[in-house]
Amino acid sequence: MNVRRTQATNVTECSTSELVELMQQTAVHLLTDFRHFEAREFGSVASIATTDFEALYAYKRGDYQRCLQLSTQIVHMLLYAKRVHEIPTFPMFIQLMDDEIASLTALTMIINPECRRNNFCCVITQLTMSLYLMSQCASKLHHSVTSLAVLLDCTEVAQKRHDKQWMLDALTLKLTERKLMAGMHRLVQLKTICRQRVCSITITPQAVVWDQRLQPTYQM
């Protein structure tokens, strides 16, 4: 009897997770269709990217290469746009956000209680969200210092063009900047350590061992 209950529970949990995944996929598909509608109807008023929800979902699923590709396209499109569209984080789309964005959203609502009644406070522009996703993906994909430096330059451009009234957007840009600087510092430190280790290795004639094929191998 216990075995049957355990099996039934496992099947139910599996079915529930699959149902949630299917619902999220359907929601992202519908939201992307809505973005296309917005771009057609309001493209003359603001620059609207149509793949922001796809990028968020790709990141949530761990498809960092796809997320980076989509986010890069959005940044190229919006970095110098006169007006950009936004993504509300709470309450509608909090499930698509990672823990850090969810925490920043909660912090914004604590600092400014008005945000609990006015959802406009809890928005992030498509540009800011894409820069954040790019920084996260670049870190997880182990990109070079040069790549992170380019992203940092783009983030600084976005900060200068930022609307000061959007607190959550400002916090997200600052978080992105800190993450990029920390990532660059870590990579520079690793390079320095590697160079020091290479310089400290000295190869002497006794360290060279010849095998039967007369190919040298080194004992470190």
How are the SSEs ordered, and which strands pair?
Layout lengths: L1 H41 L9 H10 L2 H15 L7 E3 L10 H13 L11 E3 H15 L4 H16 L6 H34 L7 E3 L5 E3 L2
Antiparallel strand pairs: 1-2, 3-4
Describe this structure in words.
By secondary structure, this protein is mainly alpha-helical. It has one domain (2-193). Helices cover 65% and strands 5% of the residues. The protein has 7 helices and 4 strands; from the N terminus they run H-H-H-E-H-E-H-H-H-E-E. The strands form 2 sheets. It has a two-stranded antiparallel sheet with strand order 1-2. Strands 3-4 form a two-stranded antiparallel ribbon. The longest helix has 41 residues, at 2-42.
Question: Would you summarize the structure shown here?
Answer:
With 220 residues, this protein is mainly alpha-helical.
From the spread of the alpha carbons, the general shape counts as globular
Low-confidence regions: 1-5, 206-220
* Class from secondary-structure proportions: mainly alpha
Q: How do the helices and strands follow one another from N- to C-terminus?
A: HHHEHEHHHEE
> Number of helical segments?
7
Query: Going across the major beta sheet, what is the strand order?
Result: 1-2
Mean pLDDT over the residues: 84
The rounded distance between the terminal residues' Cα atoms is: 60 Å
Main β-sheet description: 2 strands, antiparallel
Number of separate strands: 4
> How many distinct domains?
1
Amount of helix: 55-70%
Tell me the fraction of residues in β-strands, as a range.
5-15%
Radius of gyration: 24 Å
